[in-house]
Amino acid sequence: MGLYGMMRTGVSGMAAQSNRLSTVADNIANSSTNGYKRAKAEFSSLVLPSSGGSYNSGGVTTSIRYEISKSGPLQYTTSGTDLAIEGGGFFVVQGTNGQPFLTRAGSFVPNAQGELVNAAGYKLMGYSYANGTPAVTANGYAGLEAVTIAQSELVATPSRNGKLAANLPASSTAVAAADLPSANAATAQYTHKSSLVAYDNLGGKQLLDVYMTKTGPDTWEMTVYDRADAAPNTSFPYANPPLATTTLTFDPTNGKLAGGSPTDISLTVPGGDALTIDLSDMTQLDTGFSVTGEVDGSAPYAIDSVEIAEDGTIFAQYADGSMRALYRIPLANVQSPDQLNVITGNVFSESADSGGVQLGFSGSGNLGKVVSGAVESSNVDIAQELTDMIEAQRNYTANSKSFQTGSELMELLVNLKR
């Protein structure tokens, strides 16, 4: 077995170095591939049992491992949909067959359907805000869907919250009850008037007339009407009753709303949603009338750009400057990332040795943070690969010498009988 074992061991060594050279070639070829993880050949000895004075040479076996847990350097780009992870974790992506995978390759761009896909065609997965603020499913992929951003989609946001702050002059004269705006009579009088623009469910502008009328010492009536119901060329009477009315009471010692006074007024926007207007900053001071107000909501606008926050929230920014949360991207991790199965396209799947997938949001637990406008480069070091190549080449040559020597001795042995 001595010469045969020598030759077999030489072949084993050449095969092992060939595997090493294959990983080096793969690493060099993918040195510019985003999210690529370096492959390396790990060697272990193969020992055969020997007896007496005879030695049975064994050989060497190889196992291929990937440095998945080792991050590559971040390369910053000008695209807001390019994503990287600073720290641990993986993006969850979906293949064409609907199967979820993990990846660090975050160069995402919209496809024809508006889905964010990376260079290998895998779709980015996230939790939608369509049904409220999303919560993560810690131990599975349930609830995830492909992140879809249709640039041409028109979106209108109905008004739901507003704020009105005004100073109502303390020296104003009270109006008789029969002539208050809430009575909606042709003889109605008011102390001050302002207007607010709100948006209905279709994004249409609805003008709201706000009347502030002094009714007595430290008391004011606030009444809101739909401008569309106003009488032609005038105000009162409106075609319909007021949308809302309330009475504010002020503290005469400081001019602020009294403890028992309402601090907001609620109404339904015509053709729209319920609107609550915050009145907590109203005052009654001995100075002139002044007013400021704001109401949320927007007219129909197309998505102008996409912004992704550090916590993984994807915001759509519309042409009017308003922003709306669309999705939140989770990050995934496993107990042993280096034991994940490696699949074509720089994606990974869990294995029996890697442990189960755990999901969480950016920055939680052992997960890193999402970085927008950057991609993770390959973690391959070209200088190291060239060094390994030279070393593997020399070792291959040395093992071939072992095989060659065994072959020559075997030939000599065979020729002894001649």
From TrEMBL:
Residues 7-37 form the Flagellar basal body rod protein N-terminal domain. Residues 178-292 form the Flagellar hook protein FlgE D2 domain. Keywords: Bacterial flagellum, Cell projection, Cilium, Flagellum. Pfam families: Flg_bb_rod (PF00460), Flg_bbr_C (PF06429), FlgE_D2 (PF07559), LlgE_F_G_D1 (PF22692). Residues 372-416 form the Flagellar basal-body/hook protein C-terminal domain. The keyword Membrane does not apply. Residues 84-146 form the Flagellar hook protein FlgE/F/G-like D1 domain. It is found in: Bacterial flagellum basal body. InterPro entries: Falgellar_hook_FlgE_sf (IPR037058), Flag_bb_rod_N (IPR001444), Flagellar_basal_body_rod_CS (IPR019776), Flagellar_FlgE/F/G (IPR020013), Flg_bb/hook_C_dom (IPR010930), FlgE/F/G-like (IPR037925), FlgE_D2 (IPR011491), LlgE_F_G-like_D1 (IPR053967). Transmembrane segments: none annotated. A flexible structure which links the flagellar filament to the drive apparatus in the basal body. Belongs to the flagella basal body rod proteins family. This is Flagellar hook protein FlgE. The lineage of its organism: Bacteria, Pseudomonadati, Pseudomonadota, Alphaproteobacteria, Hyphomicrobiales.
